Structure formats: structure tokens, C-alpha cells
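If you are new to this repository, start here. Below is one unmodified record pulled from the training split, so you can see the exact layout before writing a loader.
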Amino acid sequence: MPERLSPESKVSYVNRPIFFLTLLLLSNACLSEDQKVFNQIQERHKRMHEQVSPAVVAVEYRGGKSSLTFYGTGVVVSPEGLVLTSSTVVPAGTRTVQIYFPDGKVVDARVLERDENTESCVMQVVQAPGDTRKLAYLELSDSSKAEVGQLAYTAGNPFHTISRDGQVAWSVGTISGLYKINSADEQSKYRGPILETDAAVNPGSDGGPLIDGEGRLLGILSLCFCESRWLGTAVPVHLIKRALAPLSSLPLADPRSTSRLSANCSSDIGAGGAGAACAVPDALRAACRPAATAMVKLLVKRSESARDPSSKPSLVRRLRQRPDAPSSGVIFDSEGYILTSAFNVEGEVLSIDAQLADGTTLPATLLARHLGFDIAVLKIEPPRGRILPAMPLNAEPALCIGRYVTVLGSSEDSPSVTQTMGIVSAIGRLDGCAVQTDALINYGNSGGAVVDLRGRLVGIAAHVRTNTDWSHNSGVGFFTQSDKIIACMADLKAGRDIKAPVRPFLGVSPVDNATDIRGVKLEEVLTGSAASDARLVPGDVIIAVDGMDTHSWPALVRVLKAHKPGDTIEITYQRGTVTARTSTVLKTRKEAR
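And here is the target side for that same chain:
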């Protein structure tokens, strides 16, 4: 990638023993065994990093007519020094680039061949005269057999970590999607099949390896991305091998066989390490299969005026703009009822089509929405004599912080579902309407099924917006939990919209960083608000509401949330050295203006 033009950071059947090992791992029945398994997982990832890193290099090019500096990542794929990278790292016409190894060694590499269709480039390390040492390298995996949900690693040189610090950046994730792409990036022109990953990919990672759980090369990380998903991608190595003649003699290994690097790791930590490291993603992949058959791809047609096709906004602005792309839903009732996010069907919608897992496309009707939960119920008519696959909502999701979940979604091309995995990271967010997760959530999986390790439908991905403080795939995503959806389902099926609850509004803002007092010191009191009616003024410190301690701003917010507009509250406050009480009637934000 050219350094001066770096884009913003862009920033899936498992045997029964592994499945039950995972359940054991997540229980508290045997702490010592759990500790052992976790240690094996951590040690496996560490050992794999140690085995792979010597074959990962920084690639830099300086000079030329443009006077630009290009940098990125490469990976050694033969002991004789063949290096693969992306053509976005090496400008056209370049004959020689510099290669930085993690041990500090810097050498030249001669460009042998590049292929623009796969955006790949192969180079040969120039060894010193008489130097016949074999280089550390990665075997090639048959990426045509890659599966969504399998363990994957990314390694690279983001922000010059190799050339400056001698460190190979390492991230653990999964293959989160398999589909064809038409790159939305200005620097990448790639069109074709990709491997999507929820492991980290950042500027400078392009050209680096996407690695399978055996330590083999699955693909070359790319700058290309899908506008509805905004996740890291890699060009499959089996396509690159076919395109570049110098790679023709290199074999493609069966991904189910044990690799040379994996064998080395197992000799250090025991053979169980590999199974333990794959246990969680493999178990989640198996758990998701029933829900995957019930997933639908939603094709929503909107008014042409909704988007200006002549405009070319920046990458950041495009992240904040709803793409003209499919979103997700899940059939939860075999009579044809579909749950999705209300966001997916808001605005000037002309028609909605639902594409089933087998490719059948049926027209869908919007029945109703719950705006507070950001969910909507659609209805399709099943073809005569056909029973639709459905995934019922779980009545007792028993969600807690740390619980593993997977979010299913759609891509723009492939009929197969995408999967991003993570954990529950907070409960009762957004005024109690949502659960927070660090599983990556974006436009493509908005409205998708959220599935736990037991294969239960515990929620619907929701609250994706174009103007929120959190960004897509930031690690802060939300879903509406299943039991709350069940509680309002009768109204939604009957076609009755449910508006977001109206919250009480006091009309104050706090002084920032007022940590030397116990209470909420007021920075501003809005004219016409409930606080103004109570004759509060800036500088007052609210210490209690209805006798309940308000030692901080979050504490005050929690107390107020227990009320509704029209309630009378008693406020205890301090003004200077005087403590006093006052009462007021809570209003809505609109009434306070």
C-alpha cells in the first residue's frame, strides 16, 4: 500500500469430544481442568506465532517517478526464498524492493511476476553470494476447502511493526465469510472470491498471510473490502498459485492433515493444544448450523433519492452511509414470520424480498416494528406444501458477561451465511433494550441471528446506525435478547407497532471531571426544564433524588430511569454550604424546549 494514501483502519461438524470439551471448559465444575485447557489454548497460539513469524516480512519500496513510499507485508513460501505479497504493496514496473525480516535482517528481493486479477506479486529474496541457508517458510493450504467459522490467524506489518520494532503483529479470529467481492477500496481493484476474517487487519497488513489453524497459508491479505461488512479480506492462495508461474511447483496441502509447523507446536505443548485451540470456533460453527438454515437475506428496494450516486464520499463517510446491499433476518416461525432489525426496513421502502437459504426468493410484508428494541417482524407466504426451516426464539437465554455468541449475517454475493464470534460484554445497555457484544456487527449482519454455544437463538443483531458514536466492527455491537422479543411478539404479529418508551428529562448537564465531590455538580440547567422549575442553578450539587443516593452522573441517570414523565420527584441538593430540598414534575425532552 502507498504510505501516503493509507486508508482508515478496516478495521465462523465438529466431533463430539471437542464439543463436550468446550462445554466443560465453560463450566465451573472442574476449575483445574479448565485452567489446563485455557493454558493449552494460549500456549498453542503463542507457539504458532513463534513458528510462523520468521516467515513473515515487511516489504518496502521507496522512490520512482511518484516519489511515494509503499509498504506492507509479505510471506516466505519456499525455503529458497520465494515471497508472496499483494500488488498494492509493490507498484507496477518495480524490479527490486527491500525485505525486512523480524530478526533485523534486511535484504533485496527481485520481483518475478505480478498478476492484477488476483492482485498478487511473487518475489525472490536475493541472498548474499555463498549463502545457501534455507529460509523459514509457510506451506500453502488448499484454500478451496476453507470453511466459514474455522480458526484463522492474521500476521503482518501494520504501522511498520516489523521494520521498526522487529515484531510481527498477530491476531486470532475465524474465517467469517466466503463470497465474491467487487472491492469498495480506492487502491484495490480486486474482483473475485475472497476469504473474510474477523481477525485484525490494518493498514500495512496488506500482502500478509491469512493462516489456518495448522499454520498454513490460506490467502494474502488485501485492501479490498465489502461496503456492507467492512471486514478484513484475503485473496485465496489456490487462485494465486494458479495465476503465478513461479508458484506452480509448490503443493497445496489438505487442510485436514497435520502440518510441519503444527507438529512442532504439538511436540512442545502436547497434541491436545491444537484441539483445544479449535474447540470454541468449531463448537460455535456446529451450534450455528440449525440457525443458518433459517437465515434469510433481505433485499430492500428504496427510493432512488435515498442516495446520491454521483457523490464520492470518503471512506469514513461511506462507513456512515447505508449501502445499497442485502441485510439479514431469521425465520423464527415456520408459517413465514421473519425477525430482523427495524433499521433494515426504515425509510422510504418500496419493496422487500426475502431470499431463503436454498436461494428461493419470496416477497415479504412488513407487519410491525418495536422501535425501542430496534426489531421488526416480516411475513412471507410459504410455497404450497412446503414447511419453512425455522429457528424458535429461546425463552430463557440466561445471558451473562463472558458467554460466547456468534452473529450470523449476509454477504452481497454468496448464499451462505457469514459468522462473527465473540462474547457478551455488557447486559442492559441502551436503556435496558440491548445486550452488548464484542462480536463484530455491521450492515450485512444487522438483523441476523445471535446464537450461543448451545445452538439457541438468544437474540437479533440490532441497533446498527449510520450516526452512532460506536463504529461498525468496533467491538461494541448490540443485540435484542430473545425473551424480551417473545414478550412483545403477540403485538408485533398482530401488526401493532411499539414505540420506544418516552424517557423522563430533568434538563441538566454535569460538570466534567468533578471528582472532588460526592454528587452531580451542575454545569447547565436548561430553561423550561423540570430542573429549572425546581429553581436549580449551575453550581448546585444534586446528592439525592427521592432519598436515593446520586453520588455520580450514572447514579443520577439510573434513578431517573425508574420514573416516567409526569412523576413528581424530590431533589436533595447542596448550594454552597447549604443543603436543601425541592420538588419538580419530570417532563419529556420535547416539553422542555
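Two things worth knowing about this chain: The two ends are 51 Å apart (CA to CA). The chain has twelve helices and 33 strands.
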